[in-house]
Inverse folding.
C-alpha cells in the first residue's frame, strides 16, 4: 500500500505532496512517473477533506487537483457520463466519476468564497465538472 490513506492529523504532510501529485497528473503519460486513475481515486478522500477545510491553501490545492483530474481523464469521464464504457475500465473510472460528481455542490459553494484565488479556482473547476 502507498500509505496515502493514512491519517495525517491536520493534513500537513499530504498538503505538502499535492503539488508533486498535481504535476504528475497534469503531465499524464508524458510523466516519468505517471499517476494511475486508481491512485487518483485513492487520494480523493484527502481532496474531499481539503474541500471542506477552512484553510484557503487547502481549498486552493483541492480545487486545482479536481481540475487536473477532470482535464487528465476528461475523455474517459465523458464516456462514463454517456454510459459508453466497457467493464474492464469501469471500476476505477466509475468510482472516480462518482467522487467527482459528489464534489460539484461544494465546488459550486466555493465559487462565492471570500478569498479571490479560491473563488477563481472554484469557478474553473465547476466549469470542467459541468461538462461531464
Amino acid at each position: 500500500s502507498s500509505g496515502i490513506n493514512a491519517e495525517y492529523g491536520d493534513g500537513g504532510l499530504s498538503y505538502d505532496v499535492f503539488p508533486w501529485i498535481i504535476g504528475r497528473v497534469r503531465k499524464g503519460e508524458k510523466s516519468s512517473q505517471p499517476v494511475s486513475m486508481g491512485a487518483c481515486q485513492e487520494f480523493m478522500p484527502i481532496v474531499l477533506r481539503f474541500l471542506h477545510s477552512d484553510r484557503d491553501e487547502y481549498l486552493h490545492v483541492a480545487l486545482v487537483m479536481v481540475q487536473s483530474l477532470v482535464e487528465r481523464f476528461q475523455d474517459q469521464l465523458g464516456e462514463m457520463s454517456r454510459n459508453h464504457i466497457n467493464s474492464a475500465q469501469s471500476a476505477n473510472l466509475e468510482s472516480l466519476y462518482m467522487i467527482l460528481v459528489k464534489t460539484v455542490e461544494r465546488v459550486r459553494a466555493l465559487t462565492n468564497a471570500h478569498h479571490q484565488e479560491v473563488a477563481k479556482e472554484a469557478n474553473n473547476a465547476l466549469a470542467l465538472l459541468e461538462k461531464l
Q: What stands out?
A: The chain has a mean pLDDT of 84.
